[in-house]
Design brief:
Number of helices: 19
Largest sheet: 8 strands, mixed
Strand content: 15-25%
Number of strands: 22
Shape: globular
Structural class: alpha+beta
Radius of gyration: 23 Å
Length: 563
């Protein structure tokens, strides 16, 4: 390292770190990228993602007959974020925790409308023509949720999102502008005369573990490295359950789950949050996080407590642990994650149930993760047609149905409930009570209109070309044997995203408690709440996490390139 004098040290080789480094290298700046994992983990958590990206008024939307606009998207973002910590509305000691996040949110929606798609497509990214409808909302025009489908799935999923930035960064590495230092764990930011001028930490012993596998923390030495600026892009806290529970918003959503499974690898530990605070940065909105309620235990895990999220269509019936059907739009799968969380935890338990049919699982169950979608990840058109359009559920879904510990399959409701009770971590379910609720909804399926909110949501969803073609099953009765067998899925709380983070201005400069900037310290990606310390507010619209890493990483890289 003694012969390489970087202009910037980037802490974290995930997506935000790669984007920051890419922008700096384009400007001819020298960048040293540190990461506590090995090179196999380049791209970090983003590599494991489904690769969903939110675009506003895209060609894909227009081709699918979807009318979108930046005004509608901003209305949806504000209704979801519910920014309510605005302070005195000025940049300074009286600012609220949402002062910078709100400004980042406005800038992000504009980016998603005007620049995001072109920026990514110029780098080689392509999207599938079908536009998904994530977080369909809480039933209010000005409330949470997407008014229209905006979820654009990357052709190649998360690995492709990583590739389009990793390849130019690796070319810059070959040209001598970028250097990586893997297995370097930062323990301290070096501060002199109030400015961040470098990093200190531990060199971890070599470990050639595969991507995502928990690696050794054996120490092999220490280091101190210096540069005029440090950009922290180290990710969130998703595998640090202790830290999550410490900040869990109990009063707002209910008690923290006793049983939680992890949707992110073990290295997502949140260490750099406190390290950055010690150096003068400010953490805001710590109580905001995005944990999913549709988590299932991975039958073939990579990391400890490895969890997969079901990305459901709207047709599965949803019950809390006591057997009570979830109410309103938050009882519609895929509509309102936090609303569903409140109902589930209010029952006094940390799990819930889907009850569905074979017809529903074949059309409506998708699984999060690049490795769970080999057809799209591998860019295999023939495989895609076979797996998505042919009869039967996609292979990975069938594998979970067969091997997953959270699945029960039966020909009769009585047999199904017996199996559910064997899996229950709480009260035993009553078959007569469950049957009463299912029959009541089944009666609502005799017409194309209904007073049942979920049935209305199903009919509304099938007005979307994507949903009718590949995402939402034809309406039918749960107890109709021609659509069987019956399936129950025990759903667990799954950790995933940090919504709060290091407070930053629109250039990604870290903000001190008094509102001043911490000289030399920048942050991007999940560690910065995807921008500003919490660009999503209380809720996410989905397709905005990878995009937040890209947008904030680009902002930091370009700001430092100008300095």
């Amino acid at each position: 390292m003694s012969t390489f004098h970087p202009d910037v040290i980037v802490v974290g080789a995930g997506l935000a770190g790669l984007v920051t480094t890419h922008e700096l290298a384009l400007a001819g700046k020298k960048v040293l990228v540190l990461d506590q994992e090995n090179r196999a983990n380049l791209g970090g958590q983003a590599w494991w993602s489904l690769g969903g990206l939110l675009f506003v008024d895209s060609p894909e939307q227009r081709r699918m007959g979807i009318t979108d606009s930046p005004e509608l998207a901003w209305q949806d973002w504000q209704g979801s974020a519910q920014f309510d910590r605005l302070g005195d509305g000025t940049d300074g000691p009286g600012r609220g925790e949402d002062f910078w996040p709100q400004q980042w949110a406005k800038a992000y929606v504009d980016f998603a409308h005007r620049e995001k798609r072109g920026y990514l497509h110029e780098l080689g990214l392509k999207s599938l023509p079908f536009v998904g409808w994530a977080e369909r909302g809480d039933g209010r025009a000005t409330g949470h949720g997407n008014s229209v489908p905006r979820f654009h799935l990357t052709w190649g999923t998360g690995p492709e999102v990583v590739r389009i930035f990793a390849e130019p960064v690796e070319r810059a590495e070959a040209a001598g502008l970028v250097r990586f230092a893997f297995r370097h764990q930062v323990d301290e930011l070096v501060v002199e005369d109030g400015a961040v001028v470098g990093v200190r930490g531990t060199i971890l012993a070599d470990d050639d573990s595969a991507r995502g596998v928990r690696s050794s923390r054996d120490q092999a030495g220490d280091f101190e490295l210096r540069a005029p600026a440090v950009a922290v892009t180290s990710g969130g806290i998703g595998h640090n359950h202790e830290l999550m529970r410490r900040s869990w918003p109990t009063a707002r959503v209910g008690a923290a789950p006793e049983h939680m499974i992890s949707g992110v690898p073990a290295h997502v530990d949140g260490r750099m949050q406190a390290i950055s605070e010690t150096a003068g940065a400010t953490m805001v909105n710590k109580d905001r996080m995005w944990a999913y309620v549709e988590g299932i235990h991975n039958w073939d895990p990579v990391w400890p407590d490895h969890a997969i999220r079901i990305l459901p269509g709207p047709s599965s019936m949803w019950f809390d642990a006591t057997g009570k059907r979830l109410e309103g739009m938050s009882g519609v799968p895929g509509a309102d994650s936090i609303g569903a969380m409140k109902q589930i935890l209010a029952a006094g338990h940390d799990y819930s149930w889907f009850v569905l049919t074979q017809s529903v699982i074949e059309k409506e169950f998708a699984l999060s993760g690049s490795e769970q979608n080999p057809d799209i990840t591998g860019k295999d058109l023939k495989f895609l047609a076979q797996s998505r359009l042919a009869k039967g559920a996609p292979g990975p879904v069938e594998a979970f149905k067969e091997h997953g510990v959270d699945f029960v399959v039966a020909d009769t409701l009585a047999e199904l409930v017996t199996g559910m009770n064997e899996l229950a971590r709480g009260p035993k379910l009553d078959v007569d009570d469950l049957e009463r609720q299912i029959v009541a909804r089944d009666r609502e399926m005799d017409n194309a209109f209904s007073k049942d909110v979920q049935v209305m949501a199903i009919h509304n969803a099938r007005r979307s070309r994507t949903d009718k073609l590949i995402r939402v099953a034809k309406p039918h009765k749960v107890l109709d044997p021609s659509h069987g067998p019956l399936i129950a899925v025990r759903l667990n709380i799954l950790s995933r995203k940090t919504l709060g983070g290091l407070e930053t201005d629109l250039d990604g400069r870290c903000v001190a408690a008094d509102g001043s900037r911490v000289p030399g310290l920048y942050a991007a990606g999940e560690v910065a709440g995807f921008g500003g310390g919490g660009v999503h507010g209380y809720n996410a619209l989905e397709g905005t996490f990878l995009g937040g890493c890209i947008f904030s990483g680009r902002a930091v890289g370009r700001a430092l390139a100008r300095s």
